[in-house]
Specification:
This protein is α/β, with parallel strands linked by helices. It has a single domain (8-248), classed as 3-Layer(aba) Sandwich (Rossmann fold), CATH 3.40.50. The chain contains seven helices and seven strands. The protein has a seven-stranded parallel β-sheet, sandwiched between helices. Helix 1 links the parallel strand 1 and strand 2. Helix 3 runs parallel beside helix 4 (105-133) and helix 4 (105-133) packs parallel to helix 5. The radius of gyration is 18 Å and the shape is globular. Bound molecules: nicotinamide-adenine-dinucleotide. The site of nicotinamide-adenine-dinucleotide has 29 residues, from helix 1 and helix 4.
Length: 259
């Protein structure tokens, strides 16, 4: 028996990367999954087909997570087609790579609206339904190690992910009475389309080896496993936390040898 038998999950940005891997793992663990996308319909539909092949209900559902009306419509559609949502994974995200002195207001707004406002909108819409249904639920937010420490040239990304860490605590505090648990994961570098330009760069590869105690980056499956744990009843008394999944990166590394 899977860890999510009979559950219904909505995964934002679920057509590729960490979102796709999480959607497929959830289905393997017994969940039906609505795979959200905003533009890449084909990827989300492919993921939904793979979910259906596992004998679960799977559907590609469209909404820009930063658009309240579109999210409300999408959640109506999911509930009508697949059933009420027990698990929300706020995974959709974008990233800026611009120095603080150069980032424009427009570039800042896109990242904040997608990552932070999008997490707020999807969580509020889904949590209201969870409260109405009275059966509790769980929300897992995909933050980042950039939600715990600053990173060069990531002003909006770092700010949005720090915001998600705060929002995770706030929602856990206010939704606990309704038996809704809210947690976040904070990955270090994960090999996905978002980071694909890093891996052919020898300077980056040797920096990761130096800076990450485990001397490597993560695969999406490793992050999906932590999301699964937090979404499952195995984590029944865990709420309000952000768990780093970063090969020890945020634990620190000496800049000179201790020997
Ligand atoms: N890859 C990493 O190193 C890494 C590290 C830490 C955190 N993360 C976080 O993991 C999450 C997934 O990223 P990924 O690495 O799989 O990258 P990705 O680019 O493959 O996936 C991001 C997904 O979000 C979707 N998306 C973007 N804007 C959207 C919007 N407005 N509405 C709906 N969907 C939208 C994209 O279409 C895509 O499917 C992101 O929140 C990212 O910040 C990634």
């Amino acid at each position: 028996m899977g860890h999510l038998e009979g559950k219904m999950a909505l995964v934002t940005g679920g057509g590729r990367g960490i979102g796709r891997t999480t959607s497929l793992l959830f289905a393997r663990e017994g969940s039906n999954v609505a795979v959200n996308y905003s533009r890449s319909r084909f990827e989300a539909e492919q993921t939904a087909v793979e979910i259906q092949k596992m004998g679960r209900k799977g559907s590609a559902v469209c909404a820009d997570v930063s658009d309240l009306e579109a999210v409300q419509k999408m959640v109506d559609e999911v509930e009508g087609e697949l059933g009420s949502i027990n698990i929300l994974v706020n995974n959709a995200g974008v990233r800026d790579i611009l120095p603080f002195l150069q980032i424009s207001l427009k570039e800042w707004q896109l990242v904040i609206e997608t990552n932070l406002t999008g997490t707020f909108i999807c969580s509020q819409v889904v949590a209201r339904r969870m409260v109405q249904q009275g059966k509790g639920g769980t929300i897992v937010n995909v933050a980042s190690i950039a939600g715990l420490i600053a990173m060069p040239n990531r002003t909006a990304y770092v700010s949005s992910k720090h915001g998600i860490v705060g929002l995770t605590k706030q929602m856990a505090m206010e939704l606990g009475d309704h038996h809704i648990r809210v947690n976040a994961v904070a990955p270090g570098v994960v090999e996905t389309d978002m980071t694909s330009d890093y891996f052919g760069n020898s300077e980056f590869v040797s920096a990761v080896k130096n800076i990450y105690p485990l001397s490597r980056w993560a695969q999406p499956e490793e992050v999906a496993n932590l999301i699964l744990f937090l979404a499952s009843d195995e984590a029944s008394f865990i709420s309000g936390v952000t768990i780093p999944i970063d090969g020890g990166f945020a634990a620190g590394k000496g800049i000179i040898s201790q020997k």
